[in-house]
Amino acid sequence: MLPTTPIRVENIEPVHCEPHWHREYHTEDVLAFRDMARSAHAAGTLGQATGGSPGRSARYQEFMRPQGYADNLRAVFRIGDGTWGALDLFRRADRPHFNEHDLRHIAALAPGVAQSLAGLAVTSGRGQPGEAAEPPGTDLFDDDGQVTFADAHAERWFAEVCGTSWGKPANSLRTTPIYSVVARARAVAAERESGPAVVRLRGDSGRWFSISASVLRDRRGKPGPVSAVVEPATSKQIVPLIVEAYSLTPREREVTEYVARGHGTSEIATRLRLSPHTGRDHLKAIFAKVDVSSRGELVAKLFGEHYSLLMHSPDAELVHVHS
After folding, report:
1. Counting Cβ atoms within 10 Å, is residue 131 exposed (0-12), middle (13-18) or buried (19+)?
2. How do 208-217 and 43-45 pair as beta strands?
3. CA–CA distance from 71 to each of 9, 54, 88 (Å)?
4. Does residue 14 form part of some domain?
5. Is residue 209 a contact partner of residue 53, using CB atoms and an 8 Å limit?
6. CATH of the domain at 140
């Protein structure tokens, strides 16, 4: 649940972007995006979640009430277990609160929005071959989330991801992925979150990047600045994302992996304990979803077309064998 693209914001000043993500990872609150991504319900309202007592919400106390908002509707756009986007809507105090009609309307739109957002992941990139092997960049963020040090590679990669003015506060909407991964790193260090602080995203060129962050500590264990490492993503990092974007089922993903390894249909069926007929049906379904007509086209599309520059990376041969 880390954002990977610039956020579209209307009627809210950009200055609220960084505090928004800080609250998301550092404050216990209702309707957290990470909870909604795992919930049976993809949308909900603050009024419902608080039983009509919005004052129980830190988001309401710290942001909504000072801005004149009385209710909040949040939604996540999912395909299966994968979440491809999120939505925050606010209603001012002089307007009716969100109701069941609003929730049904958003729920009806959600599948189409999720498919559209997933489609962005499978749009061909425009990077140059060989660039994926270039070194990562590193920078340090202080307690206020501001950059204190950055090397030349970080300057270059972040400029490609977020624009040339990425280090300036006025550019906060484009630097949302950076703010969010740094905020998550501090939450993980404080044991409010678990797991790594890593995000995969695409730059303006269409090239995929990975940003990982962690809190540095001194020799006595006292937490210090956050170190963020940005680098062109490897094919191993991107293959699962591309496959998920095509809405393949778990079984179809297994079949796709064996196809990528060069196994024949009969051998795949044997390994997965399927009948040959069922194995062929899975292949037909995969071809239809990915819009190809042969095994060769499938491999070419998943492992070449969408990120051909990654084929030149040092791990390319290893990934094509084991992905």
Report:
1. middle
2. unpaired
3. 17, 8, 11
4. no
5. no
6. 3.30.450.20
Residues ≥6 apart with Cβ < 8 Å to 155: 137
Number of folded domains in the chain?
3
- 107 and 40 within one domain: yes
Would you say 1 and 34 are in contact if contact means Cβ atoms under 8 Å apart? yes
> Global pTM?
0.57
As a whole number of angstroms, the distance between CA 263 and CA 295 comes to 10
Task: Give the bridge partners for 45, in sequence order.
Answer: 73
Whether 249 and 223 map to the same domain: the answer is no
Domain that holds residue 101: 31-121
Give the tens place of pLDDT for each residue, 17-33. 878 888 887 888 999 99
Structure tokens at 102: 């609003």
Residues of the chain with pLDDT under 50: 126-132, 170, 306-323
Determine how many CB atoms are found less than 10 A away from the CB of residue 293: 10
